[in-house]
């Protein structure tokens, strides 16, 4: 049996060239979903194969890679992907947002502002923002081509009619460069404003659905809304119990079966950096509004 | 006091170590060999080769062993390996008419040139568990006879001579055949891509779709024109030497379904075809594929697309079990960031609901 030998960053150079061409096209048409011949990767579809292929195609030997899942460097899938590139590309890895040149993410945008020269690679499960309104790709491609986004506005309006609010809390649709409606991947809508006019390049890879799209640096990204129902961010109204941050997205930690909860930063690097700077939270189940009476 | 979760890396390593231990099973029992898997679980190997799109019995057997017998996991292992292989080119089309036939049956004619050859089949076995097989059973040697000198023309070719069945479209040698593993798929898809998709598709998915087409979800009135299984020679046109070089034999199962008519004012009515092809002996797969191939030709044959089996976007987008299992199983990954966002919204909506109805605040009432 021939022992398999793998190229730098796993993918062969022809495949990387194909992906880079798709990336360049995506950058040239911000928010447009470029089809690409996604490969089977050694991790399952739905587990970041799109992001992994984009990262593999752009990674060079001098890059410093950070991988997060749910904002954390220590979640199992983030570890798995980081180890994959440490092994196949031998690149330096980091957990510090500021030090990374390439950050692959699932479901979050780091709290620390990104800077020019950085690339944020998103893992995308369903790239099509119109998919749950229209299951057919042939239809949704036509709708994008014609800029026909009435259906999406009707959906948001119906949310308001039924619930009094736009009932989309993550994967909240945005309009990129005043042209394409785009799915930001399942990030909480709290992160949407970070995409707008961002100095870093943002690349989106959907492996199973075989699509790549991009937001070039300093591109306008507007969350869809109505004049009388403007877009709002959501964040649980409490400081982080570990670092006291009042501006970060929080994970809810269930601490017991008596209704005990605590809220801590989902971005672990942000939280640890703040703690190392001497910031402190309550470090215990804080008396939040919701369980103060318990 | 709460400490953020750490140590995921060690947990992963330990989980994989435990997996390797479980895979080995009882260490007092000898380990299964690849030869045993390939030789004694041959149909499992055939399925992994077919849906893994890689003809290599040894690697397929290894994948089955590594996957602990989980077929989709084994198919995934083979696919991931295949994706890294360089391409040297495309072989010449194989000629199934020249097959070294080990099994060949037709349900449309009682006798056919070359005869009906049952070969190794479960058909007509009584499905009674056989305790003899539990251990140490030595089967009889198979009956043998001299190989038939007669050729075995495909039944559809016999029908085709009289124009009773539509001609197989002839491939244009200058136009490269589509490859959905190299070019992103777009719809509508031509038949070459549809057949490639079906050849890689999950057997169970195709079986259910094919079955649904027989039960009235889609117009399909098929006859199994012919099913044949055996070895065909694969040849590769090497430009350097100027002739086709034989690469070796592959075992294939081919199914040609004969379906009801098409015809028009200018064209005499004739039967239509549904085609299935799979590596190894994979009859259920090849037959299901042929049913679904025919159903998917609805657009081309001017039939109304009403049923799932006729809908190429539906079928082709959901037929791949490696894609399907990945996306279904990705629900195991953490989603707590999105979930938190949904929780926040839901709590807000519930609070508003309580206040809007003038009901007492449930949480206050609980105090």
Task: Explain how this protein is built.
The complex is a heterodimer of chains A (294) and B (367). With 294 residues, chain A is an alpha/beta fold. Chain A has helices spanning 13-28, 49-58, 76-88, 137-145, 150-163, 192-195, 268-276, and strands spanning 34-35, 64-69, 92-93, 102-106, 119-123, 174-176, 180-182, 201-206, 211-215, 221-223, 250-254, 261-265. A seven-stranded mixed beta sheet of chain A has the order 1-9-8-5-4-2-3. Chain A has a three-stranded antiparallel beta sheet with strand order 7-6-10. In chain A, strands 11-12 form a two-stranded antiparallel sheet. In chain A, strand 11 and strand 12 form a beta hairpin. Chain A starts with 12 loop residues before the first helix and ends in an 18-residue tail after the last helix. In chain B, 39% of the residues lie in helices and 16% in strands. The longest helix of chain B is centred in the last third of the chain and has 21 residues, at 336-356. Chain B has a four-stranded antiparallel beta sheet with strand order 1-2-3-4. Classes of the chains: A alpha/beta (294), B alpha+beta (367). The interface between A and B is large, with 72 and 60 residues.
